[in-house]
Amino acid sequence: MVTYEPEYQEEIPLQRDALTLKIIMRSNWLHDAVNELSSTSPARLTIAASPLAPYLVLSSNGPLGSAAVEFSKDAQLLETFQVPKRTVNTYKHSLIKMATRAMSSASKVSIRGDEQGVLSLQFMIEVEGVGVSFVEFRFVPFLAEDGDDDRESEEEVS
C-alpha cells in the first residue's frame, strides 16, 4: 500500500564520471559531526574538501553561533580520500538531518560529490542474519540568490 506519492519522482542525478570528492569513513563520525553542528540551529551546512589541510570541514552558522568540524586525512579516520581539487558546497541542514537515522545505523558512509555540487551519502548497514544493505541519500546544493549572504559564509570556510 502506497501512503505517499511525492510530487518530484525523478532521481537526483550524480555524475559518477565527474566526481569532485569521494570519501569513505566510519558513519558514526559523520553522525557526531552533524549532531554537533546542529547545536547552532543552522539553516545550512557547508562541506569543504581539499587535497591540502584542512582536508574535510563541515561547518554551519545559525542564530546560536557558528561551528566547524575538521577531519584529518589519517587513514584510520578517512578510509578513502579522493579530492583532486578544493570543493565547497552548501546544503539545507534540515535535509541532511533527515539522513541521521541511517548515519547512526550504518558502519560506513561513502561521501561523493560531483561537479554540479550534487552530494551523495551512501550508508553501508550491516543487518544481522541478512548481510549488508546500502541506503543512499542525494542532495542538491543550495544556490545563493542575489543579496543573499551565503557567499560570505562560504568564503569564511576558504
Structure report:
The chain is α+β, with helices and mostly antiparallel strands and 158 residues long. The protein is built from 4 helices and 9 strands.
Outline the secondary-structure elements.
Elements: E1 19-26, H1 27-38, E2 44-49, E3 56-62, E4 65-71, E5 78-82, E6 87-92, H2 93-97, H3 100-105, E7 108-114, E8 119-127, E9 131-139, H4 150-157
Antiparallel strand pairs: 1-5, 1-7, 2-3, 2-6, 3-4, 7-8, 8-9
Strand order of the largest sheet: 5-1-7-8-9
| Distance linking N and C termini | 48 Å
Query: Which oligomeric state applies?
Result: single chain
Largest beta-sheet characterization = 5 strands, antiparallel
User: Could you tell me the mean pLDDT?
Assistant: 88
- What series of H and E elements makes up the topology? EHEEEEEHHEEEH
- Uncertain segments of ≥5 residues (pLDDT<50)? 150-158
Shape: globular
Helix content: 10-25%
Rg, alpha carbons: 16 Å
| Proportion of beta-strand residues | 35-45%
The helix-and-strand class reads alpha+beta
How many alpha or pi helices?
A: 4
Attribute tags:
20% helix, 158 residues, four-stranded antiparallel β-sheet, alpha+beta, disordered C terminus, five-stranded antiparallel β-sheet
